Task: structure prediction
Amino acid sequence: GQQLNQSPQSMFIQEGEDVSMNCTSSSIFNTWLWYKQDPGEGPVLLIALYKAGELTSNGRLTAQFGITRKDSFLNISASIPSDVGIYFCAGQCFASNYQLIWGAGTKLIIKP
Amino acid sequence: GAGVSQSPSNKVTEKGKDVELRCDPISGHTALYWYRQSLGQGLEFLIYFQGNSAPDKSGLPSDRFSAERTGGSVSTLTIQRTQQEDSAVYLCAARDRGRDGYTFGSGTRLTVV
Result:
């Protein structure tokens, strides 16, 4: 089925570094969502974006809804060990009855 | 309850056996989704329930998979004649009407040996 292109697939970073990941789609979305999944848990919503061009922050996290409605990025500043996990983007359009289209995930690993 | 509860958290079964996975969603959340996540992979949509409407079964991989939702609340995902490729984490998510975010359970890790 339809899927978002999420990159990178994985990231190996040093603690304290900034992180950036993004998602692109051939389709227009009305909503972009970013989730984080810790090991052994289900994904948890981090940030929701509702307007093209919108830039939203949640602590050290910043996400933007692309102006074309076909992309979004998530930045994490000054990474810490608890940032480790898998980050998923998800897009939604009104025609889909609120169903989400998911990216394949970005696995974040912090090098000791 | 406050969150989405899934049981069991882990299930090991022999190939060919049937299994039932349970999801107890947040009270009042009308939409319920089942996803499958293979090791290190993304989320694979399986089935979607919305209120009293007919479920969207378009993601079920074969006729060995079925799900029901009783009374608009608890849902059961059944896998018949399990195969080794069915081994994965099965996640349930609930959504409140008109809201965008899903609340996920912790999943059931199914291992078929």
